[in-house]
Amino acid sequence: MSKNMSRREFVGAFGAFAGMIALAGCGSSAGGNKAATSAAASTAAETGDLGLVSAGKLTIGVSPDFPPFDNMENGNYVGLDIDLAKDLADKLGLEVEYKNLQFDAIVPAVAAGGQVDLGISGITVEPDREKQVNFSDSYYIDDQCIVVMKDNTSVTADDQSALNAAGVTIAVQSGTTGESYAKENFPNATTQPYGNATDCFAAMQAGQAQAVVTNKAVGKQMVADAYTDAQVVKEIATGEEYACAVSKDNDALLSAVNDAIKQLQDDGTLDALVKKYLG
Q1: CA spacing 20 to 30 A to 70: which of 116, 118, 150, 196?
Q2: What is the pTM of this model?
Q3: pLDDT one-digit tens code per residue, 24-39
């Protein structure tokens, strides 16, 4: 959701999965270290040393229209990122509170301070964002994909050149790496940003766009659940690292979040979340 300065080239879905396993396997599994870390983090949270927006709460900026990471169902926040936020808060001895923001407003909100403590919403680590905020250790690796309607036979897995033409509109979520990819790779087309993923797919279904460029996990989820008349026609191995956005002025929170992520990796919680939401 542009890529880290040290962009890795992962090969296909196996590469992304292998990268996730590698991330999940790092760190010590010593129970005593975990307990000490958790106790220290809880103490810091209770004394206000984490610089939280609200005492006793971890306030998370999310854009809940990016399944399977963030979504709203029956008025409730659901998704991998939502569960991850709960687990992080639990490790820090805090309650969790979500703040619903448009995706491209999350990083600025974290940077400005006073609104949210963290941004957790399928946010890719990339240079422009790193100028505004710090990032935690990665918790998931994703790729990009191109989605078209099933009756659009001019775009195939081997040839997407039909999209790079005047008169073609490609729908993207504003501020995402999908937007950057579309602009870079289809410069002759019109890249049309929308506020959320659903609007992108609805525009394509209505004939207002010929394709959607989005993160692979999101594209697959959308065509499986809501837009069955569309298909992921091309997967692009970009190896994008998702991480939590933290204010540059809050090193204590960054350290505590990294410790908590490591614990969730070590105890298998992160693997379980990935399996639950991505199979």
Answers
A1: 150
A2: 0.79
A3: 333 333 334 444 444 5
